[in-house]
Amino acid sequence: MPREARDTKKPILIILHQERSSAGRVGHILEQMGFRLDIRRPALGDDLPPTLAAHSGTIVFGGPMSANDEEEFVRREIDWLSVPLKENKPYLGICLGAQMLARNLGGAVAPHHEGMTEIGWYPLKATKAGKALMEWPAMVYHFHREGFDLPRGAELLATGDTYPNQAFRYGENAWGIQFHGELTRAMMHRWVVHGAHRFVLPGAQMGKAHLDGRMLHDHPLRTWMEKFLDLIFLRGADNRSASAGESTRKSEPESTVPRVQPPH
Q1: Domain locations in the chain?
Q2: HEC assignment per residue over 187-241
Q3: InterPro entries, alphabetically (predicted)?
């Protein structure tokens, strides 16, 4: 994409939770779509903007902390999500980011009632509403031991066997997914090494299954992630612009000048 086209788009605000965290594949896709990335880490002291007027939207990624933690930055992030919600700006929460959105909207975040986790590759099933939007991957990658209640007013888009709430939409522009579509191969290797102590948890898969599963399931997940980001940040923006234009036209008084039919 030409530099001029890239510069016409406002950046996407990227919120990460660790010093070495990365936007990974999601960042690569957004840059290919022509967006610049404004990366901030509130856990390390970065501030969050009081408005998203200078941004095209925001994505909050995952992290080892819980949406129930009392750390100041966790509380601040959850409260701050009212900004994209009030301004009707595109928001995507991935794993922790989805749980934070659920908390902001009044939903609960909690471990599984039998202590089960999802760490590895697990089946995903789109709901009727999800199927109406797009085709979803049959298997997705997880690394979590808490889930969220579906907030009141939210629409469930995809479900799973152990944690039933896997993807949802609130309004037109706020989205949450419990699974990870952002991992590059290098990121998955790091997660498998540094998270190996969690593979003994109930329901978790061993590291080899993570890497073997990537060979089988990553291509459909990557393809879906590209289409999903396009839906949120490009097609959604086009639809909002069209709606705004239609609203403006409806509010304009009818002209008293006779309309001339164009020549055929």
Answers
A1: 3-235
A2: HHHHHHHHCHHHCCCCCCCCHHHHHHHHHHHHHHHHHHHHHHHHHHHHHHHHHHH
A3: ChyE-like, Class_I_gatase-like, GATASE
The model's pLDDT over 28-81, given as tens digits with 9 standing for 90+, comes to: 999 999 999 999 999 999 999 999 999 999 999 999 999 999 999 999 999 999
Measured distance CA(80)–CA(63) in Å, rounded: 17
Phi, psi torsion values for 117, nearest 5 degrees: -120, 170
d(CA 220, CA 212): 15
Which CATH number describes the domain made up of 3-235?
3.40.50.880
Q: Of 235, 183, 233, 166, give the one whose Cα is nearest residue 13.
A: 233
Using DSSP's 3-state secondary structure scheme, residue 170 falls into strand
Going by C-alpha positions, the residue among 62, 71, 263 that lies closest to residue 182 is 62
Residue 154, number of CB atoms within 10 A of its CB: 21
Alpha helices in 120-206 (DSSP H): 128-133, 185-194
Report pLDDT digits (tens) over 92-141: 999 999 999 999 999 999 999 999 999 999 999 999 999 999 999 999 99
